[in-house]
Amino acid sequence: MADLPPSPATTAAGYSPAVALTMAAIGFMQILDSAIINTSLPTMARSFGVAPIDLSLAVTAYVLAAAAASPLANWLADRFGARNILVAALVAFTLSSIWCALSQTLPELIAARVVQGVGGALLLPVGTAVVMRRAARADFVRATALMVWPALMAPIVGPVLGGFITEHLSWHWNFWLNLPLGACGLLAILRLVPNERNPDPRPFDVVGFALCATSLTTLLAGFQRSAEAGGERIVALTMIGLGTLLGFAAIRHLRRHSAPLLSLGALSHPSLGYAFHPGGLYRILFSAAPFLLPLWFQLGFGLSPASAGLWVLVYFVGNLGIKVITTPLTRRFGFRCVLVGDGVLVALSMVACALVGSLDQPVLVVAILLFAGSVRSIQLTTLTTLAFADVPEVERGNASNLIAMMQQGTQAAGVAVAAFSLSALQAVLGTDAIGLPELQGTFWIMAVLAVVGAIAGLRVPEAFGREVSAATAR
Q1: Phi/psi-derived region of residue 33, left when phi > 0, alpha when psi is between -120 and 50, beta in every other case
Q2: Cβ–Cβ < 8 Å for 102, 47
Q3: Which CATH number fits the domain that encloses residue 390?
Q4: Of these four, 174, 348, 438, 445, which has the most CB atoms within 10 Å of its CB?
Q5: Does a cis peptide bond (omega within 30 degrees of 0) precede residue 278?
C-alpha cells in the first residue's frame, strides 16, 4: 500500500470494523500481558532465586519504559507512517516477550521488559488514531464499542489465566502466549492498515520529549511507591510532586514551541476536556477494581486465589454482557444523561459492595458484581466515545496520544489511591492486617469519587455530541 497523508478524503470515508477489531485484539494482547504477569511473580521469583518483592522491578520497568516512550507515538507515526510504526512496535513487543520467556536472570528479564514497554507504549495511541482518524462521527460509537473491550476484559481475565498457566504449565508460557497473538496481529496490520503519514512532519522536539518523558516516569514511579510505609512514602510523595512540576513545565513548553512534540491544540475542544474530567476521575476509580476485587475476596472473605478469581470473573461477565445495549443507550439518551445517570449507578454499585458482610447470600453477591461490571462498561464506553466527539480528523492523532498518556497516569493512580486508602484505614482502625472493614471503607471512598464524577458530568451540555450519539430529540 502506498503511503497516504491523513486527509479528510481518505479518513472519514474509510472506517473499517476489521481494522478496529485488529487494533482491539492487539490492545487486548498488550493489556493482558501486563495483567497476567502479576499472578506469576512468586513462581518467577523462585525460578530466579530472588525475593518476590524484587520481581516488582520487572513490572516497574515495563510501566516506566512505556511512560517514557508514549509521548513519541504520534510524532513517529507522522514521520514514518502509522503502519510502519505499528509493525515495528508489535515486532518489538513480540520478540521481547520471547526474550522474557527465555530469561535466566532477573536483570535479563528487566531488560526484556523495558523493550516490551517501549513497544507496548506505541501500539495503543497509534492504533487508536488509525481507527478514529478514519471514522466519520456517526461511526464513533461503533468504533469505540470495539476498541474499549480490551480495557474491560484483559485486567479481569489476566490474573485468572495467568494463575492457570503458571500452575499447569509454567510461568514462561505467559510470555510464549504472545508469539501466536503477535504473529496474527502482524499479518492483520500488513493486510488491513494503510501507511498514512504526514507529508510535512515536524522536526523532533528534544526538550519537549525530555520534559514529557521525565514528568511521566517520575509521576508514575511515585504513584507505584505511594502505598509503601514510612520513609518510602515520603520519597513517593516527593516524586509525585516533582513529576507534577515537570508536567507543568512540559505543558508550558508545548504551548510555546512552534513545532511541539505533542500539540495541545486538541485540548481546546470541549470533548477532550470532558474525557479528562470527569473521565480521568472515573478511570482512576475503574483502574482500582482489578486491584481491589481479588483482595476483597481473599483478605475480606478468606477465599483462595483460585476461588477469588472465579468470583472476579462474574464482574467480567457484567462488563461484557452489557455491551449489546451500550450503543443504543448512548444513541437514545445522549452523552450527558448517560454520564450522569450511570455515574450515580456506579456510586450505588460501590455502596453495594461496601455493604456486603459475608458470602452467605451468593446470589446477591453475583447480582452486585454483574451490576458493578455493567455500569463500569457503560461509563468507559461512553467516555471513550465522547473524547473524540468534536475533534477534527487532523487532530485525532494528537488526541489519541494525549488520551493514552492520561490512561497511563490514571491506571497507576487508581491502584495508588486504593492502596493508600487501605493503608490509611488500617492505621485509623489500628489493625495489624487489611481485612473486610478496610476494604468496605475503601469502597465507600470509591463511591464518593463516583458521585463527584457524576456531578462533574453535568458540565457536558445536554445536546453535546448529538451528531455522534445520534440521540433522539426529546
Answers
A1: alpha
A2: no
A3: 1.20.1250.20
A4: 174
A5: yes
Please check whether residue 143 lies inside any domain of the structure: yes
Residues 347 and 447 in one domain: yes
pTM over cut 0.85? no
pLDDT in tens, 125-176: 888 888 877 776 666 767 776 777 666 677 667 777 777 777 778 888 888 8
> For residue range 329-374, what is the model confidence (pLDDT) as tens digits?
877 888 888 889 999 999 999 999 999 988 989 999 999 999 998 8
Residue 10 lies in a domain: no
Which amino acid type is present at position 379?
Q
Which residue segment(s) compose the domain that 446 sits in? 266-474
Regarding whether 245 and 270 lie in a shared domain, the answer is no
What is the C-alpha to C-alpha distance for residues 111 and 92, in angstroms, rounded to an integer? 13
Q: Which amino acid is at 104?
A: Q
Between CA 91 and CA 116 the distance in angstroms is 10
* 94: CB partners within 8 A, 6+ apart: 119, 178, 179, 181, 182, 183, 186
pLDDT at 4 over 90: no
Instruction: Specify whether 222 is located in the same domain as 108.
Output: no
Residue 357 CB neighbours (<10 A): 11
Inside any domain, residue 5: no
**4: helix, coil or strand?**
strand
Residues 6+ apart with CB under 8 A from 32: 150, 154, 157, 158, 161
Cell matching residue 204: 523532533
Grid cell at residue 320: 461484557
